[in-house]
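Example record used in the benchmark description.
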Amino acid sequence: MQAARWVRRGLAVLIAPPMAALAALAALAAGLVLAPPPAAAQPVVTLKIESWRYDDLPVWRDTLIPAFEKANPGIRVVFVPTPPHEYNAALEARLARGSAGDLITCRPFDTSQRLHRLGHLPSLAGLPGLQHFPPLARLAWSTDDGETTYCVPIASVIHGFIYNAEAFKALRVEPPQTWDQFFAVLQRFKADGRWIPLIMGTKDTWEGATLGYQNIGPVFYGGEEGRRALLAGTARLTDSRWVEPWRVLAKWRPYLGEGFEAQTYPDSQNLFLLGLGAVYPAGSWEVADFEKQAGLKLGVFKPPRTSAGDRCQVTDHPDLGLGMNARTPHPKEARRFLEWVASPPFAALYANALPGFFSLNAQAPLQVASPLARSFAAWRGECATTIRPTYQWLMRGTPNLEDEFWRTSAAVIEGQVTPEAAAQHLQGVLQRSYKPPRP
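Model output (structure tokens):
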């Protein structure tokens, strides 16, 4: 039988084309059986995502990208972040010289609108799924007239306070609802001495504005109504309701702990995660890491109100979107990825992979497993919401009003500048850098 098989193989070799015959003879000599030639491999396109979100790398790499690649086997995606403080300048330089990635993570409002005006972020008109985002969600990544959207909205973050529930239980205090209650709670912790009442530093000056003024401010200046009045020129930063947040921030100083002026943002995070503090002014963006790392039970409360009967006001700020590099060599594949990002399945996947970053997709039900994230999300239904007041239109001037808010808010907290002087300075910056539209 073995001899017969070799005879048949030999005959096949004799009638095969010359090159095939030589290959077959070589295989026969080695005692091998030839396999059929493999099918042509499907070409793979690689897309690169630019981002400042270093903390999100594991989520994109291990959860989001694999879900897309499974449904789109011809497209490979890599997530390549840049340090946050370097991102804007480094990205713009790469875009200018043609070396940037195919997909661009978009910061909100003027930063990304500048890239659109420079021709780096093209219109996404006609992108399937973009219609699922209401105009207010697209506001941060659209032209001033709202006609052109150049980034798919991904998520917003909600400001508030995170507290050490175990410390609160030990002193038998409840989360405060009013400012009188807030300072009474801080005073209890200061008198007890076991916890720093309020964890925040001013070394990284942005904290004073983002975690301080832009967190508590809407309660005083009237939220979205007050913000729009400032844009229209009918309100001034020297108005009492705009000065009052700085007056409250100035009262934080005795409760911030020794050396808060040299305390960085990572220092604050570490102090709170170690259980050394009672209250942490922050927002929903901390939820994912805090739930993983904290060895203690946490809770959240809204920015306090003047009286318990007032309606709550919270900052629900659009945080990031995703657009396409106008010079990508793979526009078809890049738009396919953006179409997926605009879909409800992505929204649900993202919201649970990064609890505390809330989808802006109106077609995606806001269902998250994280208890802390659910608490933040519930405020959307309970409170009036607005965005950070210095972002839309007011970051374009020189000096930059947002940057001035950082430095000035830190100076007020440190006691270097009075609230009234801070208001005068910032109103002067606003008048020099921004002209309200004519009625």
